[in-house]
Each structure stands twice: as structure tokens, then as C-alpha cells.
């Protein structure tokens, strides 16, 4: 077996300021990695560089043996709508708000060549069911949905084409706690059944404990600690990770 | 051939945010457990019993030494290797149940089997059988265990731990808050696992239980740092 996604010496600067630097890791098929750190630690910059939304200044990003940074724009876009998916914190950034729920899911299918309307609608209905949206809402626009439903719709839109690697930026960020639990359970089930690899950026340690196999802890643009999720959370080695873990309020 | 092998293991905690205090917990731990053998850890609170179990499970890092569990060098393995070990060859019954809030009890118990690719109906049947054996009323199976009593949560944890047949089990006070009948069931489950060749490391404050299932006791005082 070989890694699905490899990153070496990745750096992004904003002028003199460091966005992220010296980042390297291998992600294996079916593995879920969490990136944690406080606001400004560089985790969102890193995710944008990994997903090809932001060009890094230095380093290497290899996906399935292909050099992502050397790809042409059309090649990279093709990758982004076939093998990859990106779940935004704000569902409005990942959905088309003026298009029906079914259209949001169907559009991704059409982008990879599906043309038969009946099949597209059937697949869309199936996916709405998988993310627990009632089939009678298929013709409603996402603007008529609650925040939790919008986020579930964004996940359906992203996963319908059967990606192998999913990037998630604070996927449970804007949701209230009861909705978060439901979404986490849903994501866990989907990741397991589809054998997805995923990179999840979050500041919520409870989220990574439940979803991630391993963690990368970032501070000041650098990775200060990596390891198995429960090892990093239960026996943190770096001063910053110890501070982060001990700062979580107990309920 | 031992399934669990620890040699010269030591553990210290360094608290960087509390004046970089270094707390030595244990040193020179050497321990081996054969298939079908149950080793009980003895020692006062703070002696490092749970810490030792967690190092075997892989969520605590050893400061030095070697920890080999069912063919995996836990002290050096990559995260995915430790996860494969936990998924396929090792189970841990901790004192606390940690679950996603709204997941029904039967699925919480069936999950370890699903992760190894067992078909859903088979996994559920097996979960149902164990929950029944541990006297969790059937009307609770579809509810999340987060609102259950302490004893019920512990039995859900035990069911989850015993649903697979694995070569290595870690048991942290598995009979602590159980009534006599359930305690008896858990002791039989442990006996059956041993008969199948499972190597067990456990903490048992219940002396009678200890005498029934443990082949050997290790006093953590031997490893005091």
C-alpha cells in the first residue's frame, strides 16, 4: 500500500508573515487526519494550500502519484470535482442557494458526465435520504433549510460523486450542539462505509476525538505535534498541546 | 510465545505549563503475558496501573523501552498500525463509556464488529445476544447509553469489549459497579475469553473476582520510579 496524499516542506507566506511552514505528512487510504490549533495558527491556510485553493510558496503536494502543484488549472479542477471534495464551514460557500436541494446534488453528477434526468433525480433522492433530508424537500431551495440541514445537504453534494479525499473546514462550526452530534454521527458512518480519506480542520477537540484517526497540532504556522488522536489528547507532549487540552471546559 | 511483551518500559509525565514539573511514574517494567493468561495489576491509587494499561493500548507514550502487543511494537508504531491492532487484535474495557450522543446502544455495541467488516445484521444479532446476557432490558437497546445508570453504562462497555474474539484484552475494573448476577456474567465472559486463548491484563479491586480469573498478580510497587 502507498499513501494517497503526501505533503513535503509546504510553506505559505503572506509577505513577511508566515501562514504555514515546514508542513509534511503522508495520508493513507481510509485515514482521517484532524488539524487542530487556535485561530491564526495557520490551519485554514494549510487546508487551502492542500486543496489547491491557494498556491503555496514552497513544497510538494502529491496525490495518488501525481504532482498537484504542477497540474494545469483544468486538470486540478477536474480532480476537485471527481476524486476530491471540500466541505466549507459555512454551507452557503459550498451550496448554490438559488438552486433546489435536488439540483445542488444533481449538479455535481452532471459535472462528471451524468445526463439521464431520471437517474440523476433518483441518485439525488437516495443521497438526501442518506444525509437524513426527507425526500419531499428535494425541490426546496437550501435557503428554506435550517443550518444543520444546509450542512447535511452540502455533505451530500460533496459525496455524491464518490470522492476519495475530502477536505473539511470546521464542518460542525456554525451548528448548535444537538445538531453537531447528529452530523458527527452521520459523517462517521459515511467515512466508514465509503472508506474515505479526510483532512478535517477544527478547533473543537471533541470533534477530532470522534472523527479523526490522527492529529496534527499547529501553532504559529508550524506543526508542533502529531500522533494518534487519543495519544495526542490523552498524553500531549508539547507545551502548547498540553495547554490546548487542559483549556477545554468540562461539562 | 507471549502476546504481550514489555521490556524496560518507563514512563514520566512532563507538565510544561506547571513549571516543567517532571513526574516519574514507573521504570524498568518488564512483563509478559501468554495466550489464555490473565495478569492482574496491584497497587495503590497513583501507582501507575491505568497508566501501564494505557501504554499497552497506545494512548500513552512510553518514555523508553519496548511494548510488543500481538506482533505490533506499540511504542514505535505509526497511528494506522495501532488502529489496525485495536481494530483486529485488541479490546479495552475502560471505566468510562465515550460515545457519540445520539447513537443507539445496540449500534454502540455492534460498532467494533462493523469496523472489521462483519455484515450489519450479524453484528446486531451478536450485540443483541450480549446485551441480553448482560441483562440490559431490550426496550433500552434503541436508546443512547449516555443517559443510562453507571452500572448499565459499564455493561454496555463490557458488551462492546467482548463482542469480538481478540488475542489481547485490557480490563479496567470490569466488575466495579455491578450487582452479583451481572458480576457473575462478566466473570464467565472473562473465563470464556481465556479459554479461547485471549491474553488479559486487568485491574480488579474486587478480591474474589481477582482470585477467580487472575493467574498471576503483579505489584506495581516493583516498578516504582
Automatic annotation (TrEMBL), chain A:
<dbReference type="InterPro" id="IPR027417">
    <property type="entry name" value="P-loop_NTPase"/>
</dbReference>
<dbReference type="Pfam" id="PF00005">
    <property type="entry name" value="ABC_tran"/>
</dbReference>
<dbReference type="InterPro" id="IPR017871">
    <property type="entry name" value="ABC_transporter-like_CS"/>
</dbReference>
<dbReference type="GO" id="GO:0019700">
    <property type="term" value="P:organic phosphonate catabolic process"/>
</dbReference>
<dbReference type="InterPro" id="IPR012700">
    <property type="entry name" value="PhnK"/>
</dbReference>
<dbReference type="InterPro" id="IPR003593">
    <property type="entry name" value="AAA+_ATPase"/>
</dbReference>
<feature type="domain" description="ABC transporter">
    <location>
        <begin position="5"/>
        <end position="245"/>
    </location>
</feature>
<dbReference type="GO" id="GO:0016829">
    <property type="term" value="F:lyase activity"/>
</dbReference>
<keyword id="KW-0067">ATP-binding</keyword>
<dbReference type="GO" id="GO:0005524">
    <property type="term" value="F:ATP binding"/>
</dbReference>
<keyword id="KW-0547">Nucleotide-binding</keyword>
<protein>
    <submittedName>
        <fullName>Phosphonate C-P lyase system protein PhnK</fullName>
    </submittedName>
</protein>
<keyword id="KW-0456">Lyase</keyword>
<dbReference type="GO" id="GO:0016887">
    <property type="term" value="F:ATP hydrolysis activity"/>
</dbReference>
<dbReference type="InterPro" id="IPR003439">
    <property type="entry name" value="ABC_transporter-like_ATP-bd"/>
</dbReference>
